[in-house]
Amino acid sequence: MKKRRLGLRNDKGFSLVELIIVIAIMAILAAVISVAIIRYIDKSRKSSDLETAKTIYDAVSYAYAEGYSYEGQESGVDQDADVVGTDVLSGISVGSEPAYNMEVISKASGTATFTNTVAAQQHFMSLVRKSLGKENAGSKEFSDPKCKKDLGNGTPAGFMIGRQLDSGGTPVRFEIWVINSSGAPIYRLYPDCCKEYK
Predict the structure, then answer these.
(1) What is the pTM of this model?
(2) Do 113 and 129 touch, CB atoms closer than 8 A?
(3) Which of 43, 143, 151, 179 is the most exposed place for a label (fewest CB within 10 A)?
(4) Largest Cα–Cα distance in the chain?
């Protein structure tokens, strides 16, 4: 006759309840980790857009210092440092800032490069493209915004070079915005980035 040891189980392996508990814990951990990863990816995409905006802003600042402040003629085209084109948006506001007017200088998305039709700004825009390594319009692909998420104002589709104007219509500073698919500015990235991209 065989003797059984008390307190020891003969079965080997896990019970169904134990397996369900382990799977439930793994599912909860996966959900928590995936949310953190998605948040990290969104943040890195916005950071990439901010870096692109700073690069564009630096190119604009260089072009302004090198050529846009020059008044005279370049290839038979008058260059006027203070010219303001006709594409002016009224009542632009960011957060709690007072609304202001903004001149739209140029927009780019997809394979487009920054160009405009204001004759007096052509030399300036040529220097901007040269500084960005995009001398020939349409020759090189322009980097679209990496963040493709609607953060409250719309989905980013491209970049815009704008110029804030004071109440008298005099240029105050350059600004870099992201635009939606219709070309409307939706988030200011540089300088003074809007809260949605911070």
Answers:
(1) 0.79
(2) yes
(3) 43
(4) 114
